[in-house]
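Comment thread on ticket #2218

A.B. wrote:
> Attaching the input chain for the structure job we discussed in standup.
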Amino acid sequence: MGQILNPERILPIQDLADTRLDEYLRLSEAHLRMRTYVENGLYIAESTKVVQRAINAGHQPRSFLLAEKHLGQLVDEFNRFPEVPIFIGDDRQLQDLVGFHLHRGAMAAMNRPEPLDLDAVLAQCSRIAILEDIADHTNLGAIIRSASGLGVDAVLITPKCVDPWYRRSARVSMGTVFDLPWVRLGSWPDELSKIRNHGYRLLAMELTEDAVPLSDIEISAGEKVAMILGNEGRGVTAEALDAVDQTVIIPMHRNVDSLNVGAASAIAFWHLCSSPR
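C.D. wrote:
> Ran it. Output below, let me know if you need it in another format.
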């Protein structure tokens, strides 16, 4: 195990009211924290694997927070950022601070990189997933993990979609959210016209009268395709459906209506990305 170059950076927690810890305070209260985090250019990476992937993607840490027993798991990351403080505490201190049992090794407060340019992303890609108003962080993380693993080039999210860099989303994605390009759209569904102007064929997964089985969708070499996946409850909005070229379904059996959006996304991404490009 390597050594931390400057052990004076290791700061045992003495007082939970220490303002240097405010970025970790009451993380379980997501509805109170996320807007503030985005406005302050911050996100929290949770688990050693997610912290490592975030740093390997070029993201900059503000501070680290972990139990002393996990110090050895992030020595390389600590030494890459010799000026960043490392806060350590016992299990009770950490739980009292963040609001839940921190059992996945470590956390880091990270600076948010600048948003990617939508036109640049659309120009460079051929397989795009569009996530409309996904409300559950676990679902979003699972969708992004499938998108990354199955070969989707980028993900676009609508203004009301939850944050891909929220700690639960990032953790469920296994940190793949830091490797897969994503852009939050500024206007929805207006920006579908911009996506179409970049040459994308627009598909939506939704049960409509004219929907066709996903397996019937043929994609030719060189064709650019964007797939819309809708909110867990209401699905794809009527306004978005009016703008797409085709709706598709996954045929179901035994009177099962549909799959969870996370499972459905994996099937859709496999079909899109197994086609020639």
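A.B. wrote:
> Thanks. Noting for the ticket: The mean pLDDT is 91.
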